[in-house]
Amino acid sequence: MSDMSDAELMALFRKEDTRHYAFNLIVRAYQKRLYAFVRRMVTDPDETQDVLQNVFLKAWTGLERFREDAQLYSWLYRIAHNESITHLKRMRRGLFVTESSVIERLTTTLDSSEHFSGDIIQKKLQKAVMTLPTKQRAVFTMKYFEEMKYEQMSTITGTSVGALKASYHIAVKKIEAHLTRPDQTM
Amino acid sequence: MNTRPEHEDLKSLAPTLTSIPKVDPFVVPEGLFERFPHQVQAHVTTQVPGLRWTPWVKRLALALPLSAVLAGAWWLFRSTEGPVEQAAVVIPETTVDELELLDDPEALAALYESEGSSVASANVDLTEDELAAWLETEQTDLSQLITEL
């Protein structure tokens, strides 16, 4: 990870001869944190990689217009959030695609030890997260796993703090209900 | 980070959820974070700089074909309405040479012959003064003309 600040990285990016170098540093600086979020949303490692690649390609084309009064991480996170949601919506398209078939596809990787190292309860939690609607899943992931502040989440999602709080509250209740349901054994 | 009251709220709302340790159980493919920046860089360098779909470009992309369609429709509507204004009559410019040619009796006779009936059938009504002036110009003997007729 680079020790440079966002302002220093952006100053390098704005110079023609150091643009690629600066962008490489930006990718290295934020790839792990963004990967963690996208992976929780998409679950499949290959699809996560594709989504993350799109995130950085969009960042490359839009970075010139990036306003430095915003945080670079929040800006990149916003792209990652939108790309993940677009990807999940795309998965739901199709005449014979049902909600359950999408959840089944999303949770397939959880059954492979090559891709998932968690225990039974972790797997159960991830499967519960998969059942949430796409935007609610993003809200839950940001708040519960990433412990993000509502104000930052509001900047990323473009949703009001009140709406985010309500969405998170409902998501937590749904997941708790899923976890305590006796028939859901893993 | 979560504040304490927030965490307490969560604990009372979802005790099972909060009892699960927060770990990242997803396995990252080996060497991904070493490879990935190079992959992105390779895509970036081969990326063909295209038109950026900024909101302004999007609006223009919609407005241009729409105005072309509207202009075409307006033009079609106008052309099916019939002639609004009478087209200007284009009169070929008569050159000075052509006017002089009309003064030449031989040329005029040749024209008379070539145009045939159309010229012959032309309705030429002369007034008495015009007729007198013509006879004088042609030095025609009026008594001889009357005899011939």
How does the SSE layout of this entry go?
The complex is a heterodimer of chains A (186) and B (149).
Chain A: H1 6-14, H2 19-42, H3 45-62, H4 72-92, H5 99-108, H6 120-130, H7 134-145, H8 150-157, H9 161-180
Helix pairs in contact in A: 1-2, 2-3, 2-4, 3-4, 4-8, 6-9, 7-9
Chain B: H1 4-13, H2 15-19, H3 32-46, H4 55-80, H5 96-103, H6 105-115, H7 117-120, H8 128-138, H9 142-148
Walk me through this protein's architecture.
- Chain A contains 9 helices and no strands.
- Chain A has 186 residues and is an all-alpha fold.
- Chain A has 2 domains: 1-117, Orthogonal Bundle (Rna Polymerase Sigma Factor, Chain: A); 119-186, Arc Repressor Mutant, subunit A, CATH 1.10.10.
- Chain A is globular, with a radius of gyration of 18 Å.
- Chain B is mostly helical.
- Helices cover 65% and strands 0% of the residues of chain B.
- Chain B is rod-shaped.
- The model of chain B has no long low-confidence stretch (mean pLDDT 73).
- The chains are: A mainly alpha (186), B mainly alpha (149).
- Chain A binds chain B through residues 20, 23-24, 27-28, 31-32, 35-36, 39-40, 43, 45, 49, 52-53, 56-57, 60-61, 114-118, 121-123, 125-126, 144-145, 147, 169, 172-173, 175-176, 179-180, and chain B through 1-2, 10, 13-17, 20, 22-29, 32-33, 36-37, 39-41, 43-45, 47, 52.
Offer a few descriptive terms:
heterodimer, A: 186 residues, mainly alpha, Rna Polymerase Sigma Factor, Chain: A, Arc Repressor Mutant, subunit A, 9 helices, 72% helix, globular, B: 149 residues
